[in-house]
Amino acid sequence: MAAPAVAMDADPRVITLVGRGKDRENQDLQGEYHRISAPALVHGRPAYRKPGARTVIRYWSPTDRWIIDREGLQESDVCSAYAEQGGAQHPAREDLVWRVWESQHQQHVRDPELVATAAPPALQVLGAASRPTEHAELRGEYRLVGLHQGRVAYRKVGAAGGPCLRYWPAADRWLLDEAGLRNEAEACSAYAEARGALSPGAPGLVWYVRDAARGCYVADGGLVATVAPAVVELLGREASKENVIMNGSYHLLGLHAGRPAFGKADGSGHVIRYWPKEDRWLVDFDGLQDRDVCNAYAEAQGSRDHPVDSSIAWHVWESTKGKHLTDRTVCALSAPHWIRISGRETGKENAAINGDYVLVTVVEGKAAYKKNGTNHVIRYWLAEDRWIVDLESGFDGGDVANAYADAKGADNPGSSVLVWHVWETAKGRHAVDSEVLAEGLRHAAIDPVQLAALVNARPGCQRGAGAATTTTAPAPAVPG
Q1: Which positions ≥6 away from 305 have C-beta within 8 Å?
Q2: What confidence tens digit (pLDDT) does each residue in 231-264 have?
Q3: DSSP strand E in 19-86: where?
């Protein structure tokens, strides 16, 4: 008998499978899995799919197990890995023990390092935006690496054996430790009392930083671990409209007014910042100010840690109307800035799909890309849940495609697991080309001190001739 249905609200939307050694069989099962909306439940439990792939994590009620199946949602107990269910309503339980198929042993072998978790796959450690040199050694992106002391652990990107975020059970604390993942010491650069928080990125944690001069740890409200993205892509404002130069890439600066702030790295001084008095995200061409004057704003809706949310509407200042007007085409995304397609053999039909495509707009609610100097685009086609490469009709070509890949939950086309089908006239159909690869490319990280200098440069002298026709002095946000 299948288990009773569970409330979907209790189930995480995204889970991450991590911890399998990179040289071990079936290590490619690792990664993010997104909850499948249809069917909502499989054998009375939620199911999860790896974006762009057939691989799923699903419940199998006859043996009361969570199963990782490369063949998708099927009625079978054949699997690449499994865990005894043990009463878990979803597979993101760090106490589940996974057994992974190993051909050498012709059986599933226990892997205590493998874990499925709802903890964020990445965190950003930030300091105060106004003090960019402070905690420089700790700032940066930290990636989930597995379990340590029974809880999730993170390591700073590009710093093997260096700074990490780890749990210390003896004191029930989350630690920022420059010495890496160690077991023998509570010593650290900073700590936060866990008090039930299952991740160091949980909201509300207060971090205490080691003060060498005073010989103690001191609370520092400017230090935080957050799920905010490293770059926010703001786009959609039409070229003919006022304040079009709000479009662009905004890099993570640090904390301002208690939330992450983002700034352009082009010397314009443009920022996205939080305004707590009205709970709003503001686009401000005058940098990190403590006032409600802005060129555009969006309601933060209470608990949002960053402005990337397709459900919020942006309101942009228009001088002719004397107020901010809603612009439904403006959107803040966390997506690759470029998509590079390669692998289609020169001389073959539709070899022109190869090349670099830059993020320029939103189509069907997802990022859309265009190759410079051409009409070649990559866009999403909602009706069939596909990513389409269109070399002829641009963003208005419907389901006509020179190449396509079934999205299967992939939020952008820059995924190595997508299988691309390319049109071949001789066959009269799209044929799989296993050599074609779409790679997502993002902006390189910018040194916080350098970025702060660019953002804090007085933009007033830079907005003259080049931008005077598309922007005006900002105006206060409309009252709530």
Answers
A1: 203, 226, 227, 228, 259, 260
A2: 999 999 999 999 999 999 999 999 999 999 999 9
A3: 31-35, 48-49, 56-60, 65-69, 81-84
